[in-house]
Request: fold
Amino acid sequence: MKKNYCFILILSIFFFACKKGGSNDPVIDPVAPPSTYAFADLKVNGTYNGFTYYGLNNTPVVKITFSSPINLSSVSGNITLTDATGNPAAFTSALENNDNTVVISPSALQPITKYILNINTGLLSKSGNKLQTAITVTLITAVDDTDKFARITDEELLTLVQKQTFKYFWDFGHPVSGLARERNTSGNTVTSGGSGFGIMALITGINRNFISRADGLAQMQKIVAFLKTADRFHGAYPHWLDGNTGKVIPFSVKDNGGDLVETSFLMAGLITARQYFNGTDAAETALRADINTIYNGVEWSWYRKDNSNTLYWHWSPNYNWDMNLPIKGWNECLITYVMAASSPTYSIPKSVYDAGWAQNGAMKNGNSYYGVQLPLGTANGGPLFFAHYSFMGINPTGLTDAYANYESQTKAHALINYNYCKANPLGNYGYGENCWGLTASDIQGGYTASSPTNDVGTIAPTAALASMPYTPTESMQALRYFYYKLGNKTWGDYGFYDAFSLKDQWFATSTLAIDQGPIVVMIENYRTKLIWNLFMSAPEVKAGMKNLGFSSPNL
Reply:
């Protein structure tokens, strides 16, 4: 009897326990979440500025405060300091503020370098709790103000920059064609427009005794012999060529034919060389004749596309006019209209210049930016190569037409660019009166045409240096800074690398023909006007520019 009673009692307890839960599932007590503690405050060198710090000294003090006292022994492995490539940086750690604050003291950081301080959730409090959320702090050290190279005179520095940059076109010139490679990683891809700049650089190199006249002449003979057999499309060269074969390399799918703008840069270089090699001997006489044949073969007027009142940039044997890009101002293409108007064989009339390029005055601006009035073009001037490419040959000094004073235009453009970088409205670290210059260049992860209206925090040395004729004081300040203060970060085998960002601690290792060429040539125009004088001395150029309505003491 006692046995049956016990069995009924146990069964009743089981029944009511199941009914209490409302189901037949077993009851499970909830598990309490593990205890955590939280981040409370951060100071770097005594200041809080979010989680990114610029311009730090090489021994910054980082203090991170938490809601609970920290177990110092758990710092190892849970607080790490590395550079951007993951290499560890040494530091010491200590506790203060009743052990709620961890003090991180790096031993000696490198200048102009980005470091990442990571605090993982494995950092334990004294009670054994984990950090609620991981923390990342970016530390960017300042430019070391010491000179990286020995001081020389400004004149010596200008010569050094020209000589080193000239090596891009001489030492690195394509061995078969003699033309300029697109960039320092381009292999056999040579660029027609960049080669025009390279030819002007070659003339500069001869005149500065970087190479002999005989060696320069031999290089020009190689270039001209190659161009005589290379692919042409109604006389215009493509943007890119194979330096071994002379066959077109498409710049894009439909851009596999003539590029009139790149061709105009090349022709300006060739005409400059023709004017320089003025000897009466057979070699120089033959060179001039070959250059004339090449220039006279460009069908500028055909690129009006069915005789319209504007020039068009591209034509393809496969896609005809599909690119459909009229060449309209204001930008880098003034030289295209000048070379077209100057042609003895396929010239364009003034009406094409007025309606196509100048858009009957629509390219005028007249507004002021950063205290400087801009005669032509887009707001704030656009990228600085607008003021360089055409004016490597065309001398803007005293040059006027119905639309502008081009001396005022080029100086205004450069000065607005300088004033913008000095004002630095976006707060890009590193910008200032010594570090300025926005133009088309490589950027971190790509390429863009930087300008005050497209500012991604990247400075291109070619922008300030090629503006030397317009802003000599400001450009010289930039040159000294790039060379002496940034040193090997920006200076290499072929002069200055293409671009850099002190904000992102990114430094290009690339060099581009279209950026190196203007440095050599425009510094020379600032110093001696050599290339300006040669190009402007060409009879066709004088006649062509006068026909377009230009007036200048140099015409």
